Amino acid sequence: MEKFKQFFKVGFISKSGNMYLYQVISQNDICIIKKHFEQYPLQSTKFIYFKLWCKVLDMIQNKEHLNSEGFYKF
Fold first, then answer.
1. Through-space distance between the first and last CA atoms of the chain, rounded to whole angstroms
2. What span, in angstroms and rounded, lies between the C-alpha atoms of 42 and 47?
3. How far apart are CA 40 and CA 66, in angstroms?
4. Under a CB-based contact definition with an 8 Å cutoff, are residues 32 and 40 in contact?
5. 28, CA 20 to 30 Å: which among 6, 20, 58, 60?
């Protein structure tokens, strides 16, 4: 996880019990990761989940999640 953090230059690592978490919170930082995987696409079904994640991210950036129609879209 430290390599991810060094590569993307965003996020932080925390520990919860016996599990480590790599978290990115800022929308700007999330866009850095999104751009990387758009340039270097994921393989297999991970690509499908990435595309869904991108749709949700776009909805959040457009504030569509703040109304009932956008909130229940998926």
1. 30
2. 5
3. 31
4. no
5. 20
- Taken in order 12, 15, 21, 26, the sign of the CA dihedral is negative
Instruction: Put residue 68 in one of left, alpha, beta given phi > 0 → left and psi -120 to 50 → alpha.
Output: alpha
What are 30-70's pLDDT values in tens digits?
Answer: 999 999 999 999 999 999 999 999 999 998 888 888 888 77
Read off the pLDDT band of 6 (50, 70, 90).
very high
CA angle 57/52/48 to nearest 5° reads 145
Collapse the DSSP code of 67 into the 3-class scheme (helix H, G, I; strand E, B; otherwise coil) and give the result: coil
- Would you state the structure tokens that stand for residue 73, as one six-digit string? 């879209």
